[in-house]
């Protein structure tokens, strides 16, 4: 990809007449759309009958877009296999946990593990890649669309066979599986891998190992499908490859992007859920470290389907979304969709142009995004996002553990987003990082809501602390083995507890017990399934007051080399809990020497970026209330070419500012 900022939309020329296609291309130029995503649902147009494949229509569209200054992200159309592949073949269809096989229609109705589906998917992908891979207008590829957005783990016969093969590779012998899973419980013992079922209908709850491992198996298989498609495309195209994913889908994003070239995501967070929007930018920036991410889909104003709709954005908000995304590392900001669909289940969805060819309620906002994109592009493309000093480890595998064991219907995304919101509101620049991420450059590492901490992760986090970092573990972390069973050597595992210098006395659901935690001069009710500590080599920092274990610790700290390890055994709740958690973060950010933070007001963000010579602050108001930040020294506004004095800088509703400072000389 060339070094520029992209402003794009999903385009479905196969749905429209020649006259409307020509009109749309002209309208795109007027709106400043410089990239279009095409082909993701067009399998039946490309291959209307099995074996009769014709890509000439799409070759022509890509060329016409390119002739008008619009580049293309080409998609493989595998989420919507045609009727000839599905009709009369229930064995090729996705089967849900109740044993119901899907029929034709909607999307994601076929099983992506089915051998015949895989063969035909490979054939259509190769035809597409051969036909358009060398076209100058094709700057990127998207594999499929939103893997596992509408479906989770398939329970078909193909998946059952693959699952049993996967287990044999993982465990080696059935005896080792039985031991790891504890299958003597409820007479679940198996004599062969062929006897191990899928976690389908059951009178009560499945064995935790069975259910969690099946999720991990499913995540691995969908990533293998992406790998297979990417390998085919690379034979014919040098353009980078991605998938439009989300933390809401049933995928392991770290594994999914492992063999792809850049990360992209879809987001439809409401305008009043700024943390739900920004958390994606801070996470997807780190799936492919050093490479810009794409927002492949967001709404111009509102999302909708036949059965739902979201509240439209206020005027001005879309621009703040786009500027924040570009500042936080996005190369592209793209809409779903360009022209409103006249049919189907998403016909009410917001768009740039209506089905009848007129500007929508979001059109003026799109023009504002384009004006901002052109204005900030020279600054953004000549700088890079700053690596944060504070990292929160994010794990989709942990999401699988929590789906198996949700306690009182805990939601992984909501838990992580709420935790993230505390850091965001404190003006701390932050990264969300996958489990396998390099920890160098960070000063404070937080590991919340990860039931299973692998030995590799613990060792890397230990080395991080020994080299001077502060590692905060918990809440809800470390209490399960890799097989989703309970440790038998110590509640959180002997390795972690020895490292932390604690003995976990109890683990139990703390809310409703009247337990109050006190730390940092503050008190708050405690919540969630909690761990109660007896410090050994550690010091008690947070003490339980009242409740079932008064006087015991729920926060401990222990020096570790040049740094320290902190155990957070319970989540403080309510407004008091919010204050206590922020006090904890503030305390250990100071201990770690975190400096990449500002006093920016809530609802406004500062996205720091660097050039070789300068530090840049991109300041964006996201809540429409305006905000302010204190500039530590005089800066320069590269947009207005004016000096900006040190002190308080006000930013209006949905406005943005860029302030440039000389970069300190490194010793």
TrEMBL record:
Listed Gene3D superfamilies: 3.40.50.880, Glycosidases (3.20.20.80)
Residue span, Beta-galactosidase C-terminal domain: 603-660
The EC number(s) this enzyme carries: 3.2.1.23
InterPro entries attached to this UniProt entry: Beta_galactosidase_C, Beta_galactosidase_Trimer, Class_I_gatase-like, GH, Glyco_hydro_42, Glyco_hydro_42_N
Family annotation (CDD domains): A4_beta-galactosidase_middle_domain
Keyword flag Metal-binding: yes
EC category name: hydrolase
Pfam families from the UniProt entry: Glyco_hydro_42, Glyco_hydro_42C, Glyco_hydro_42M
Domain Glycoside hydrolase family 42 N-terminal span(s) in chain numbering: 11-375
Signal peptide: none
Keywords attached to this entry: Glycosidase, Hydrolase, Metal-binding, Zinc
Swiss-Prot/TrEMBL catalytic activity: Hydrolysis of terminal non-reducing beta-D-galactose residues in beta-D-galactosides
GO molecular function: beta-galactosidase activity
Domain Beta-galactosidase trimerisation, chain residue ranges per copy: 388-594
Family designation: Belongs to the glycosyl hydrolase 42 family.
Protein name: Beta-galactosidase
